[in-house]
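Record format v2
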Amino acid sequence: MRPTLQLLKSGRSAWKGPYFVAFPNLRDALTNHVPIKTQARSCTILPNFVGIRFMVHNGKDYMPVNVTQDMVGHKLGEFAHTKKRFTYKATKK
Amino acid sequence: MHILGVNLPDSHLARFALTNFYGIGHKTAHRLCARLQVHDKCKVKDLSPFQVTALASFLSSPATSPTLPRYPLATPDYVPPSPNTPAQELQARFAAIRAKRVENRARRGTDPIVYKDTLKDIKVESELRREIRENIAHQRMIGSYVGRRHAMHLPVRGQNTQSNAKTARKLNQMDRY
């Protein structure tokens, strides 16, 4: 979906504006391509985050997320999966 | 009757038969009927050829078709012309009414407020299916949670998976439509 649609559908009232975290090393990350380690999964991806590499916490490790223009209205945590894929292994009894 | 590949049963009321189109529900169907001056109790077999062609041409692409005109409601003492009047006479009558309306507007000289016609925003059939497919593909492409769940044929909106995920297992696919 277009980023504006995602921002509108977010569940947060429009008059409050999107929830985001002001990262102190944002400019450094843009110029030197240093990944930003963060536990703020609920941070909305803003247009000025595009091109930055984040390491988003998923409860255990930090997963790399390369932000592109299409990801703008979504949250960081959507791209760091928290559960392992379910596989069924028949138990031998 | 077949309109744009969809069969509308002749005995059904036109207002509810229009819901057979993918992307038209009860509200849009009623609005379309009002715009085309189709009576609430009019059946599909009683639709005039003008109405059928107007409906078909509008639904073929609502966004790019010319706006369907909004006519004022008839006064209580209005007597509609009999079905046997020739088309020329109907068109002449309509042209006379339209000329009078244009003259009144010119005399008043005010700029009327132009309301956006929301009927043009509707998407039907193949366009709507294409949009849904693109949305799912977009979610998968960016690698989000929603895209992953569609790819795994599992529920997307946080429903239980320990039991009861039958519809999701059947319908949640990447090529859903």
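Residues 87-108 of chain B form the longest helix (22 residues).
Chain B touches chain A at residues 135, 138-139, 141-146, 148, 152 (CB under 8 Å).
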